[in-house]
Amino acid sequence: MENKMYVSSSPHFRSDASTTKIMLDVIIALIPATIASVIIFGPLSLMLIGVCIASCVLCEYISRKVMKRDTTIGDLSAVVTGLLLALNLPVNINPFIAIFGSIVAIVVVKQMFGGIGMNFVNPAIAARIVLLVSFPNAMMTWVDAFWYKNADAITSATPLAADTGTYSYTQLLLGTTGGSLGETCAVALILGGIYLVIKKVISPIIPCVYIVSAGLMALILGQDPIYQILSGGLLLGAIFMATDYTTSPITKWGKVIFAVGCGVLTILLRTFSNMPEGVSFSIILMNILVPLIEMATTPKPFGKIKKAKGEKK
Amino acid sequence: MQSKLTFPKKPYRTHGGVHVPHRKNTASKQSVEMPTPKSVTITMSQHIGAPCKPTVKVGDVVAVGQVIGDSDAFVSAPIHASISGTVKKIEKITVADGSKVEAITIESDGEMRVYEGIKPPVIENISDLLKATRESGLVGLGGAGFPAHVKLNIPPDKNVDTLIINVAECEPYITADHREVLENSWGVMSGVYALKEILGLKRVIIGVENNKPDAIKVLKNIADSEVDKYDEVRILPLKASYPYGAEKVLIKACTNRTVPMGKLPSDAGCIVMNVASIAFLAQYMKTGMPLIKKRITVDGDAINEPQNVIVPVGTSVKEIIDFVGGYKEEPKKIIMGGPMMGSSVSDDSLFIAKQNNAILAFTEKEAKLQEPSACIRCGRCVDACPMCLMPPAITKAVNAKDVQAMLSSNIMNCMECGCCAYACPANRHIVNNIRLGKQIINNEKKRQIPLKEGK
User: Fold this and answer.
1) A298 interface with B at CB cutoff 8 Å
2) How many other CB atoms sit within 10 Å of the CB of residue B7?
3) Pairwise CA distance, residues A129 & A275, whole Å
4) 0.95 cut: is pTM over it?
5) In chain A, what are the domain boundaries?
C-alpha cells in the first residue's frame, strides 16, 4: 500500500461541537437583547455595537499578529466580547471611549494573558469597570427610553438610581427604562438565556442560583427582590457574563458557590457602596476566586473510597 | 454486600458518558464464514500478561487446535493453531500497538485437519473449570484480552454473587456481539447457565443497550422460559450511551456497586464476561475446540460490503478486506477495534488476534484530523467523564510534567474511553495527553522514586 495513512491516538471520532459554534450560539442568544436595544435607544445603539465589535475583532487580529501567534478571530470570541461590551455601555457615550474599552478588553485582559481560555477575569466586565473608573461621567449619563423620538434628549436615572416604584414591573420587563444598551429588556435577556440552556451551551446553574440568591439577599435587606432582579445589569450579568466559561468554575458545586457569591455581593454592593451598580464588581471579584473554588469542589473520582478515620496509608 | 439480591428494573445512574453515532450498518446481516486462508500468522502475545513461547519449530506439521505457544506464567493463555499445515516462519513482527512480538506463520495444507487431542473437557467443579478455561486459550473477547481463567479464579474472601454479561457493545460500527446473540442465542444462554451453576452464583444480569431490541427479545424469550426455573437470570436494557460497555460503568449500572479505585470487579462482588467469551466457553465445553476463530465486524466508509466475518485467528487484515469486496475508495485510516478506543494502524498488513472484534477503514472524509485549538474551559470533558475526573487538571499537570500533580488528579483512574476528547469543542487531544502522562509516571516508577498517590 503506497498511500500514507493517518495514524492517531484514539478516539478517532469527535462530536461536531466547536468553539466557533458555541460563540455563534452566544451571539444568537444576544440577538433579542440587541434588537430590543435598537428599539428602545434608537439607531445610535446599532452604531455603538458596530464600533465595539469591529474594534474588538481588530484588536484581537493585531495583537495576535504582533505576538506572532495564530489568528483566532475565526472563533468569534472577539465578536462576543465586543457585543457584550457594547450592551454594557450607555447609548450616547463617545465612540472613542468605547474603542478604548475594546482595547482594554481584548489586548490587556485577554491577549496579554494568553488569549481565549487564559484570561482570569471576564474581558467585557473588566473593560466596563476600567471605563467606569476612568470616565465616570460618560459612563453614568443615561438617556431615557425612546429619547431619540423627542427633540431634546432627556437624561434619566436608571431604575436602580431612581426610587423603588418609579418604574412598574411591566416597564422593567420590557426595558422601557433608562440604562445601558442591553441590560434593560428583561424579556429579551431571559429569551436568550433559555436558548443557551436548550442548546446546552450553558448550564442553568449559574443564572438560576445567581438570581435566586440575589433575590433572597434583597429580601433579607428589606428590598423588593423582583425590582432588584429586573433592574440594572443583573440579568445580563447572570445570564451572559457570569456564565463565561473561562472565568467561571467547571465543577458543578463550584458553579453553585460562584453564583451564590455573585448574587449576594451584587445586592450588598448595590445597597452599601457608592457605585450605582454591583453586578460588574461582584462578578469580577468571584472571577478571581475561581481557581480556589475549583480546588475546593473537585469531584470525588468514581471508585475513590473515603478512608476511615484514623486509618493511615 | 447486599443481604438480598434484587434485579434492577432500570439501570442505576452512572456519571458522564457521551452520545456517539451508532452506525451499526452490519447489525441485520448474517455473519459469513471466511474460507481457510493460505497462511496465518499468529502472534505469541494475544492477551494481557506474559507472552507465550513457541512450542513448535519451523518445519513442524500442526493441526487445528494444537497448542503452538504457551507460558508458565499465571497471567497468560496458551495459543493454538487455527489451521492445519506446516510452520513456515517464527519471527518478530510489529503489532497494532507498535511493539514487536514473536509470531508463528503456518502455511495451510487446505485440509483443516483437527488435532487428535481435541475432546470435550470434563468439568465437575471450579478447579476443573479453571483448568479447562486456561486450556481453551480464552481471553476477554471484549477487547482487553484479559486471560479468562485468571478472571474466573476468584479468591475465596471476595464473596462474589453476581455474574454480569456484557452485551452493551457501545462502540459505533461494531456488531460482532449483537450478531453472536442473534445467531447463537442458545449457545450464549447455555454458557450463562453453565457458568452460573459451576460458580454457584445466584444472580446473572445481562446488560444490553436498547439499540438492539431484537437481541433483548431473543435473550428474554429464553430467560423467561422454563429453562430458568428460579428466575436468576434477567436481561437489563441499558440506554444506548457510550461507554456502558466499560466494566466499572456496567457494574454500577447493573448493581449500583462501585469498584474501588485500582481494584477488580470481584471487589464489588461481580464477574463481568463479554457475551462472545461466554458463547465460546459454552461451545468449548461441548466440543473441546480451543479459541481459534473470531467474529470480526468489517465496516467503515472505505469498505465495499460491510459485514461480520468469522475468521481463523492469524488471518491477515488485507485478506479479510479483500474477502468483503475490498476497498470502495482509497482508505486513509484503518482502525483495529472501534472508533472510540481502537488503535489506528499504519497499513493493512496486520493479523487478527483473539481479542480483536473489528476492522474499520475510513476515507479521507472520515479520517481527517482536526487541529486542536485553545481550551476554553467549557467543562464538557468534566461532564462527560464516566470516572468523574477533571481532564483539564490532568492535562495541565501532564503539560507541566508534574508527576505529583498528575497523581493527585488521579490520572491512573482514567480508562482512556475517549469521552472527554469526543466532547471537546476545541478538538484537544486529551486522551493522547493522558497516555503520555501515564507513560511519564511509569518511567518515574521504574526509576524508583517514591511517589504518593492522590489525596
Assistant:
1) yes
2) 15
3) 11
4) no
5) 19-296
- Tell how far CA B233 is from the center of its chain: 23
The architecture that CATH gives domain B126-287 is 3-Layer(aba) Sandwich (3.40)
pLDDT score at A311: 42
Enumerate the β-bridge partners of residue A156. A142
Q: Mutate which of A203, A302, A304, A311 to test chain B, going by most B C-beta atoms within 10 A? A: A302
Give Cβ neighbours of residue A311 (< 8 Å, ≥ 6 apart): none
Which pLDDT belongs to residue B450? Answer: 63
DSSP E strands in B313-357: the ranges are 333-336, 343-345
CB B35 within 8 A of CB B293: no
Residues in chain B, pLDDT under 70: 1-4, 448-455
Write out the three cell numbers for A25.
Answer: 450560539
pLDDT at B176: 95
Buried/exposed code over B18-52 (b: 16+ C-beta within 10 A; e: otherwise): bebebbbbbbeeebbebebbebbbbbbbbbbbbbb
* Integer Cα distance of B367 and B370 in angstroms: 9
Best of B377, B410, B415 to mutate (most A CBs within 10 Å, chain A): B377
Question: What angle is formed at CA B10 by the lines to CA B9 and CA B15, rounded to 5 degrees?
Answer: 145
Q: Give the phi and the psi of residue A94 in degrees, each rounded to 5.
A: -65, 125
Q: What is the pLDDT of residues A257-268, one digit of tens each?
A: 999 999 999 999
Locate CATH 3.40.50.11540 in chain B.
Answer: 126-287
Over the stretch B2-40, which tens digit does the pLDDT of each residue have?
A: 446 889 989 999 999 999 999 999 999 999 999 999 999
- Residues within 8 A of B (CB atoms), A 248-277 only: 250-251
Q: What residue type is assigned to position B166 of the chain? A: N
All residue ranges of chain A with pLDDT < 50 are 1, 308-313
Q: How far apart are CA B209 and CA B237, in angstroms?
A: 6
Give yes or no for a contact between B290 and B284, defined as CB atoms under 8 angstroms apart: yes
* Nearest neighbour of B376 by CB, restricted to A10, A117, A303: A117
**Residue B274: all three cell numbers together:** 463479554
ipTM value > 0.85 = yes
Distance between B350 CA and the closest CA of chain A, angstroms: 13
Q: What share of chain B is helix, strand, coil (3-state, %, to 5)?
A: 30, 20, 50
CATH for A19-296 (1.20.120, 1.10.3210, 1.10.10, 1.10.3430):
1.10.3430
Answer whether B261 sits within 8 Å of A5, measured CB to CB. Answer: no
Look at residue B36 and give its three-state secondary structure.
coil
